[in-house]
Design brief:
The complex is a heterodimer. By secondary structure, chain A is an all-alpha fold. Chain A has helices at 14-31, 39-53, 55-60, 62-68, 78-96, 112-133, 137-146, 150-169, 171-174. Chain A has a domain at 107-175. Chain A is 69% helix and 0% strand. Chain B has one domain (13-201). Chain B is built from 9 helices and no strands. Chain B has helices at 13-33, 39-43, 52-73, 89-106, 110-118, 122-148, 159-163, 167-188, 194-201. The longest helix of chain B has 27 residues, at 122-148. The relative contact order of chain B is 0.13. The chains are: A mainly alpha, B mainly alpha.
Chain lengths: 175, 202
């Protein structure tokens, strides 16, 4: 098991953390009928930024124009407000647990350089995957699985099958 | 008052925004507290070295699922108004595979990369950088992707639809699977790649 560094607070019990996340998810189902999300907010942030820097080009791409062309502002969205909250909550927990050290998490037998390269590639793969699937682990898997959504369960199985397979080829980076 | 309160007009826009902020706050807090800001801890799930990702996700799903079903059972919620993704088999299979690959190659998923970035983890920052590149590529390639990779939209199918079992029965089965999984996880943590990890520790 990977534990927190000595200088940090020990990590919370995962079952307890999962229970807590479950309570949050149920609460938002009850109050708003919507779920968690992360990839959607990052997507909106990116398209917004690109739209500010290069509006003509961004609007020439159908997929992005759909976001920018809606009647409400691209960032006026449940997911984006949740994103802002997530930033705050992450920081508060980080400060409380003394986890704000600037560092690179990596395996014991790799280099910072290799880690940075794999992180960039991983992010790009995740973005394409999230858009294809219609969400990520929070927005699709957690949210959808909780209401027995087939999309979520198919997605969840695929994530783990692929992860286990690819892990074999990445073992030098993590073990 | 029937739920979801916002969709049925009992909560206004301001309320919706406030709830989004608070939910995000709590979610981000737990992600960091439970260690999901640690790229090494996250990727470790695919080595059986640290099953936390599985424990967290399954616990969350079971908790929400049981509470939501109970609310439905007692007539407190209109379940059809709760968000559910449309089934697109190739989208979810290929997309899931890419996210899984992204998780073990990159060490994060989108949500955890946000939590880690706020705590100054450089690998998370570059993961998000890569994410942005991926969004750009996806947007530009979307016409090709929608024709050649995405499949038919099958709508909001559930496990109940697929297995022909009631909502309650299906919920019970999933709870059973989850509890069994938790037992297996506790027994097998650290065992899968034990030979390699033992060398590292020695």
């Amino acid at each position: 098991m990977i534990a927190a560094s000595i200088k940090e607070r020990p990590y919370m019990n995962p079952y307890l953390g999962g229970f807590g996340i479950g309570l949050i998810l149920f609460t938002i189902f009850l109050f708003v009928g919507k779920g968690l999300g992360a990839s959607g907010s990052l997507t909106r942030l990116f398209v917004f930024g690109m739209g500010e820097i290069a509006p003509t080009f961004t609007n020439s791409i159908g997929y992005f124009q759909k976001y920018l062309g809606s009647e409400t502002h691209i960032l006026y969205h449940w997911l984006f407000f949740m994103f802002i909250g997530t930033l705050g909550g992450s920081l508060i927990a980080g400060l409380r647990g003394r986890r704000t050290k600037m560092e690179i998490y990596k395996g014991p037998n790799t280099t910072n350089r290799r880690r940075i390269i794999t992180a960039v590639i991983g992010g790009a793969l995740a973005a394409i995957g999230a858009r294809l699937a219609g969400g990520c682990t929070s927005g699709l898997a957690l949210t959808g699985a909780s209401v027995l959504g087939l999309a979520a369960w198919v997605f969840f199985l695929s994530v783990f099958a692929a992860g286990l397979l690819v892990a074999f080829f990445m073992r030098r980076e993590w073990l | 008052m029937l739920a979801p309160y916002y969709k049925l007009g009992f909560i206004n826009e301001f309320g919706m925004i406030a709830i989004a902020l608070l939910a995000g706050l709590a979610f981000g807090y737990i992600l960091v507290a439970v260690g999901m800001l640690n790229g090494r801890k996250i990727s470790a799930v695919f080595y059986g070295e640290d099953w936390s990702v599985m424990k967290i996700m399954f616990s969350a799903v079971v908790t929400t699922m049981v509470l939501t079903f109970s609310a439905y059972y007692f007539g407190l919620i209109d379940i059809n108004l709760v968000q559910m993704a449309n089934v697109n088999l190739s989208g979810q299979i290929v997309g899931g595979a890419l996210i899984g690959a992204g998780m073990v190659v990159g060490g994060y998923c989108p949500g955890t990369s946000i939590a880690a970035s706020m705590n100054r983890k450089i690998d998370a920052w570059v993961y998000i950088g890569g994410f942005m590149v991926g969004i750009f590529v996806y947007g530009v390639a979307y016409p090709f992707i929608s024709q050649n990779i995405l499949s038919a939209n099958l709508g909001k199918l559930t496990l109940s639809d697929v297995f022909g079992l009631s909502y309650g029965t299906m919920t019970l089965i999933i709870v059973g699977i989850a509890l069994t999984t938790f037992l297996l996880l506790e027994k097998t943590e650290g065992k899968l790649y034990a030979r390699i990890t033992a060398k590292t520790k020695a």
